[in-house]
Design brief:
The chain is of the alpha+beta class. About 25% of the residues lie in helices and about 35% in strands. The chain has four helices and seven strands; from the N terminus they run ββαββαααβββ. α3 (about 65-75) packs across α4 (about 85-95). Bound molecules: flavin mononucleotide (FMN). Flavin mononucleotide (FMN) binds near residues 12 and 14.
């Protein structure tokens, strides 16, 4: 889930030991895709991902509902899970440690990434496959955004 859009980029939160986090470790050049099928519309963003500060992750983690905070401790995201019961037991274990109402610390392996965009493309489906593709690209010299149209 996209949690923040700012001048610096697009921020989401995840488990730093997840499959996608390992992928980002190997290659931080990423894309974010926002398809909106009913409208035949899509926004795709290419950019570079980097971890947000521990403070920013702490601040966001503290705003999450208690169940989501405990869930972050319970889930070894992307690892093989033998049974549903195992996940539930891990949840109960964390819930006993930090009962509802107590301050749940952020797991050290959980936090955010910010994607600094290099280009942002807006795609709109249209008749006879004559779709619109409008792409904003960050100019390498001036740092401003240049808008171009592409063949569909
Ligand atoms: C509506 C929705 C929102 C999601 N948001 C996130 C999110 O913000 N962070 C996250 O790590 N996974 C999120 N997920 C789960 C991911 O789709 C994915 O299953 C998970 O991140 C594991 O991916 P990986 O094993 O490729 O790292 C979301 C799933 C849905 C359906």
């Amino acid at each position: 889930m996209l949690k923040d859009i700012s001048a610096g980029g697009f921020t989401f939160f995840t488990n730093y030991q997840s499959r996608k986090a390992h992928g980002i470790d190997l290659n931080p050049n990423v894309s974010l895709l926002f398809p909106w099928y009913a409208m035949e519309r899509q926004v795709s963003i290419s950019g570079v991902a980097e971890k947000v500060s521990a403070q920013e992750s702490d601040d966001y983690f503290a705003t999450r509902p208690w169940g989501s905070q405990i869930g972050a401790w319970a889930s070894a995201q992307s690892s093989h899970l033998v049974s549903r019961e195992e996940l539930e037991q891990r949840f109960q274990g964390a819930a006993q440690k930090w009962p509802e109402g107590s301050a749940v610390p952020r797991p050290p392996h959980w936090g955010g990434y910010r994607v600094t965009p290099l280009n942002i493309e807006f795609w709109q489906g249209r008749y006879s496959r004559l779709h619109d593709r409008l792409r904003y690209e960050r100019s390498t010299t001036a740092g401003n955004w240049e808008l171009s149209r592409y063949y569909p």
